[in-house]
């Protein structure tokens, strides 16, 4: 039985031994692959264990339910994004809106091997809304921070609105490249062009130039 319906807020076990840490890595990698392929809702604990080549008891030993697995993945994805957004914010002031647009739209494509299940978790329909909201909120906040470095006079609320549009554009491009979204050979370049025009129009009035 998949424990997705469990409401209990039990914590994951943090292994102390190297073998245990390795097993957790394998389980989370399997979970990330499955959620990227099938979505959060369709992925079961039994499938995660099977993909990792582990017994179901081993999975439950470390993660009491699927929500705990999702929590662990979100924490890992956020750590990756924090590193990337920090680096981006350092250079955003030197980038034109069009150049920043190019960097941002490619970010999910570049990071995909490390955050495979991020999009699936951001779209998850789960009783524990904080899983989805935390993933979305952190992504939007990081993008908005970079936008405000590039355009310092941009209002925080507007920056978040623009960041939400940027995030969805990033997800569409990744879907086009991985063939998960309807596309044609030239469509990704057209999306990139549209994204540059959009950010240039929205950010230029708020830049200190």
UniProtKB/TrEMBL annotation:
Residues 21-81 form the HTH tetR-type domain. The keyword DNA-binding applies. Keywords: DNA-binding. The keyword DNA-binding applies. One of its GO terms (molecular function) is transcription cis-regulatory region binding. Residues 44-63 bind DNA. PANTHER family: HTH-TYPE TRANSCRIPTIONAL REGULATOR PKSA, HTH-TYPE TRANSCRIPTIONAL REGULATOR RUTR. This is TetR family transcriptional regulator.
